[in-house]
Amino acid sequence: MSKVAVKKLHWRSKVQEIFVPLVGSSGELGIAIGGGADYGEFPFVTAAPGGGITVGDIILEIGGTPVLGLTLGDVRGLLNSCPHPIRIKTVSPGMVGT
């Protein structure tokens, strides 16, 4: 008796790629992040101006660099060193593991 393989959708099919520009006259990035390896978490968005990136989104890559295992300080350093607009890949938290 053979089993029929059921292909589940992987969360990677739900990845969003967003280009985050600098905002305002001060040239701020406009997003804030939390989490990181020092807290045992993926980095995630804690404040966002809108335009595709949402508070709570999990950050997978910044400027093509995977952020899994990076501390919050390392992720912030990566954000500050990337050319602008910064390309960020995120996934909604409900999509991880489904």
TrEMBL record:
SUPFAM superfamilies: PDZ domain-like. Coiled coil: none annotated. Residues 25-94 form the PDZ domain. InterPro entries: PDZ, PDZ_sf. This is PDZ domain-containing protein. It comes from Cirrhinus mrigala. The lineage of its organism: Eukaryota, Metazoa, Chordata, Craniata, Vertebrata.
